[in-house]
Design brief:
By secondary structure, the protein is of the alpha/beta class. The protein has two domains: about 1-35 and about 260-350, Aspartate Aminotransferase, domain 1, CATH 3.90.1150; about 40-260, Aspartate Aminotransferase, domain 2 (3-Layer(aba) Sandwich). About 35% of the residues lie in helices and about 15% in strands. It has eleven helices and twelve strands. The strands form two sheets. It has a seven-stranded mixed β-sheet, with helices on both faces. Strands 1-11-12-10-9 form a five-stranded mixed β-sheet. Helix 6 (about 165-170) links the parallel strand 5 (about 145-150) and strand 6. Helix 2 (about 40-50) packs antiparallel against helix 8 (about 245-255) and helix 4 crosses helix 7 (about 225-235). The termini are far apart.
Length: about 350
Amino acid sequence: MSHFWSSVVHGLTPYVPGEQPKVADLIKLNTNENPYGPSPRVLEALQAEVGDTLRLYPDPNAESLKNAVAAYYGVTPPQVFVGNGSDEVLAHAFLGLLKHEQPLLFPDITYSFYPVYCGLYDIDFETVPLTAAFEIELGDYERPNGGIIFPNPNAPTGRLVSLAAIEALLARNRDSVVVVDEAYVDFGGESAIALVDRHPQLLVIQTLSKSRSLAGLRVGFAVGHPRLIEALERVKNSFNSYPLGRLAIRGAVAAMEDRQYFDQTRQAIIRTREELVHNLQGFGFEVLPSAANFVFARHPAWDALQLAAGLREKAIIVRHFKQERIEQFLRITVGTENQCNALCRALAQILGV
């Protein structure tokens, strides 16, 4: 029946999300979900929203959430766009800001949704190789382009680019949009939102999925110059006027407002990450410096796929990418202290140490 497909569908290579197996007592360290539940204030807000008002459409502009994001970051509501997860916000940015005659630039090893969006929206792109140490070298992006996008920290490597390096790029790349995808920035980086007032070509995208434990609610946002935000709004209102439901808006506002719980849980993840890195290095792993809620590691004497299979037999799953340059790495989400200790015990048994 594929003859019913449009030519667009025939040409797509879709994104493959991390596995979500339905297995009891599984230690799931493969999709960078937060091991700690949402803020209790979020759960209270969601319960308060469940009622007769669900028969009514949500606010199409999600003003309360834009106000909450603006208040948190010290920007104005017209500088904020919100959407159904940062993936949707990214999709609108690709179509609304990054589709030009010159190629879009992004790293060769990065979030694998970027080339998928290029295929969907027919965007020409070029990949820029990471350094031998798997770092993004922004000096390599100073060439003709229709836009630049990169995660910071990068995924799946976890390596961070400094704000000074980003600002240096912005100073020299004034004629196209630079998108900084900050899905993991709260685990060790400094947000480039601090730069948006000085650089009208900068768009910063974040998600509530990771550091605010709301991957199941699907909320993301962008911050930038009001003219960039207007482009996203025009695309959004040509696609779906109501991307965020009442529950998502109410829960996301509560998450942005509960700063104490946010800081408490992210600091716990940072502490556990540092302990995990120390333990993995003790087993002989090379671990890239990580500013995210995951680590990227390889063992010089063991095949990554073999290690992943051995962990799976012990009901622990991690992420392996069959991609050139990184096929011997495993991406391991930082779970709770107990989960990471169980991972290390399992690795000790597999490695025989």
